[in-house]
Protein: Histidine kinase
Organism: Sphingobium ummariense RL-3
Amino acid sequence: MATNLILGAVLLACLVAVAWPFLFYPLILRMLPTRPEQPAAGPTPSASLLFCAYNEAAAMPEKLANLAMLKARYPSLEILAFDDGSSDETAALIEAKGDLVTLLRGPGRSGKAHGMKQLAARATGEVLIFTDANVLLDEDAIGRLLARYADPQVGGVLGSLHYVGEGESATASVGSLYWRIEERLKDEESRTGNVQGADGSIFSIRRALYPDFPDSVLDDLTVSMAVVFAGRRLVKAKDAIARERLVTARKDEYRRKVRIAARSWHTHRYLSPQLRKMRALDRFKYTSRKIVRWFGGIFILVGAVAAGTLAMRISPMLYMAGGLAVVAVVWLGLRSRGGPFAALVDVLIAYAATLQGVLRAMTGRTVTTWNPAKSR
């Protein structure tokens, strides 16, 4: 009986840990008081828009048209791009728009972090706005980001990423759902103080806060967290919208998640001394949204072992029935292009990829370069 209670407790703890970032953490955030911003009178700061590209020729015509629209809306906007040794026509397409975009060419494959540092060093805007080569910004996005800098305590502002193509596959549907949850978490984190890090689709910081960092880290997380470390606010403007097409193939999404997780954990280790100095609330947020999620795969594995052992102790028939049910669900999910079984399999794959990336980083391996997903 005592062993069964222990196994049940382990299973319950694992279920809580897996659900924590998506259920319990959001509920806690909603109970926290709002920390209002304090805007002051003053001119709108100048801005530089920066992005890195590698083999994005297919996306570049639409990207350049989007940049031309933004430039027409905000004539003083400075736009700079870094080409990371593309082997297609990416650099030539950008260079042909020299009146719109200032192009910097890398010496070869050196990675996004290296490229962004080169762009930041060349930029002249008071605010640096970061985006990706395959991301399109809504026409009001720049103005809505810059408006939040009216509060002198605000050091960085994120926008909202809306994904396109969520119905094209189960992988895309799961990715879209995950990101909608992520965006809502950032909204609540912003309302209560600081968002815990940005992704590269759309975020900005005051140029004076841009940190120095090695090329091996995830620049989005490193740069955005520098705002929090400096004692300024990192907030989200949910009406500043960026749009990106989802990855639809499981293989592409798996590789992407492994790469991001490996760099995230490597970056976490680099930032650890500063993370430990954050306020208690920010440390709680960071742990809940990032660390617990990174190890979700371990919680699933331990929970599955506990559930299987408990079922075997209760009844071998229950154990066999449970095992067959799991095999059937996975088999149906792998063969399906949509539906709940396919979605469940994609969730498990996402956890496995994240755990693989974290474990890879723990052994000292990380990733500095990237390749665009072919199934976007």
